[in-house]
Design goal:
The protein is of the alpha/beta class. It has one domain: Rossmann fold (3-Layer(aba) Sandwich), CATH 3.40.50. Helix content is about 50%, strand content about 15%. This is Short-chain dehydrogenase/reductase 3. One of its GO terms (cellular component) is membrane. GO terms for molecular function: all-trans-retinol dehydrogenase (NADP+) activity.
């Protein structure tokens, strides 16, 4: 490597760092979703429902495609979207089954058109010690929380790549950045989602499709009913509305990473410089985690 190449490298790094710094102070303008088809999985309740409502408020002319295992809840979300003046299409879909994803995706293309924005939100959480959990529940955690993202992406990514325009948003968790006791399977599934999203974004750039954007969202504990006994001595449990608002804003600004609450990105960088034992102590002192809830869950 020659001297000029080193100088050029350092110059480019400095420029990119400066651009990132400026973007924190002056965020880019929000893009428009008018006329675009936005698909949300797990739209029947919690974060998914709030995402549908927030997108309708931000882009009333977007076409929302809502997927959920619970048809009644999903239809209720569609009704709320329509009450806000939006356009919504409700489909029952079990995202743990790739064959069902494929068949429902075909129906969406026939009824509404190609999907421009895919938001993988559906998720489950059992919350138990690894040795207490049944194999079928560990498998289902990955089928819903991780593998479903692969199958939905494979369905809708080709059309996005053809147009060199689109967006895939994956809802992960802060447990993706720090494994948590009694969430061994959940933390692993969300860590995989984080890595998948990051890798897919790089893959789009290397394949010459920079118009296809990716965003991974990492919230702290959220009051959706999934996590029954969260613990955080100094923080607070987030509302689905707070997560949805941050997610939609980040997506519309093409942010690759969204942490909720936002200051978490800074704490991640600080803790990354600390010894492992120090981070463990901080987590223990803050009483951050959950109490086991597996015995309270409906075993299906």
């Amino acid at each position: 490597m020659g001297l000029m190449e080193v100088v050029s490298f350092l110059f480019n790094v400095t420029v990119l760092w400066f651009q990132a710094f400026i973007a924190v102070i002056f965020p880019p303008a929000r893009k428009s979703l008018d006329g675009q088809v936005v698909l949300i999985t797990g739209a029947g309740h919690g974060i998914g429902r709030e995402l549908a409502l927030e997108i309708t408020r931000a882009a009333p002319r977007a076409k929302l495609v809502l997927w959920d295992l619970n048809k009644e809840n999903n239809d209720a979300t569609a009704s709320q979207v329509k009450e806000l003046g939006g356009e919504a299409y409700s489909y029952a879909c079990d995202v743990s089954k790739s064959s069902e994803i494929h068949s429902v995706a075909q129906k969406v293309r026939q009824d509404v058109g190609e999907v421009d924005v895919l938001i993988n939100n559906a998720g489950i959480l059992y919350g138990g010690a690894l040795l207490d959990m049944e194999e079928k529940h560990i498998r289902r955690t990955f089928e819903v929380n991780t593998l479903a993202h692969f199958w939905t992406a494979r369905e809708f990514l080709p059309a996005m790549m053809e147009k060199n325009r689109g967006h895939i948003v994956n809802i992960a968790s802060m447990s993706a950045k720090g494994g948590t006791a009694f969430l061994v399977d959940y933390s692993a599934s969300k860590h995989a989602v984080y890595g998948m999203t990051e890798a897919l974004g790089e893959e789009m750039r290397k394949l010459g499709k920079p118009g296809v954007k990716t965003t991974v969202v990492c919230p702290m504990f959220v009051n959706t009913g999934l996590c029954m006994f969260p613990k955080d001595r100094f923080g607070k449990v987030l509302t689905p509305e707070e997560v949805a608002t941050a997610t939609v804003d980040g997506m519309l600004r093409n942010e690759e990473y969204v942490f909720v609450p936002r200051p978490l990105w800074l704490s991640l960088r600080i803790t990354g410089l600390l010894p492992v034992r120090v981070n463990q102590y901080i987590k223990e002192f803050g009483e951050i985690g959950i109490e086991p809830q597996y015995q309270h869950m409906k075993k299906d």
